[in-house]
Amino acid sequence: MAVISFANPKGGSGKTTLALVLALELSRNGGKVAVIDADPNAVIVGWSRNRSASGTDVPFLTLPRPKETELISTIGELAKQYDFILIDLEGTASRLLSRAFARSHLVLIPLNPSPIDARLAADAVRLVYEESEALERQIPYRIVYSRYPATVKTKSFKRIAEEIRKEELPTLRGGLVERAAFRDIFEFAATLDELSEETTSGLFRARDNAHELAQEIINALKEEHKI
Ligand SMILES: Nc1ncnc2c1ncn2[C@@H]1O[C@H](COP(=O)(O)OP(=O)(O)O)[C@@H](O)[C@H]1O
Ligand SMILES: [Mg+2]
Q1: Which ligand 1 atom sits closest to the C-alpha of 21?
Q2: Any idea what the CATH number is for the domain that residue 87 is in?
């Protein structure tokens, strides 16, 4: 069983998208997945409700934002039945975030490579270190490039990537590329497999991207916890 949190105080950095893509990949591979949707916009809960309303199966459990006092017991209950518990967080410091981090085997920090976003992602990294210090255990985390262009890497992207390399911040090699498919799964309340090439361009590349990224995240969990 693994708990994975998604955090970055920057709205729009790609937390919810990464959480949904990963939940889909893990359940597609036979994992029992629960998503705790602590995003105030409740986008993943909405995705799941839209599917239920149209009689389409929902491949994983979704739970609305729990009270902060209930988060730990909720995780404890889910841990008895589920292989993966994903927590879509806001990313600003809060007790809910501290508790989610305390139970996380891996914190993923999506980073949209622009200078402002890099600063806010650094805040998320600081929060991981603060919690690690309080708990006296290293909370493993990875930065994940998100919404980055499929083709040309801008100069600012390269500068940010260079900064991150210099700081030796743990970063996944692949990230989530900017692709229509990663928006369309929300618009159509669909999985990547259900989308069609006619309505979504670059679909095959998006699927490959999702498969590879999920594999890299599993590898990170194995590295950290020998799961
Ligand atoms: N890889 C991606 N490709 C295309 N659009 C994306 C991608 N990641 C995020 N988006 C879009 O960017 C916006 C913000 O993403 P979201 O996942 O909601 O961020 P957050 O949860 O961090 O606020 C949404 O409109 C989403 O559809
Ligand atoms: Mg969100």
Answers
A1: 1
A2: 3.40.50.300
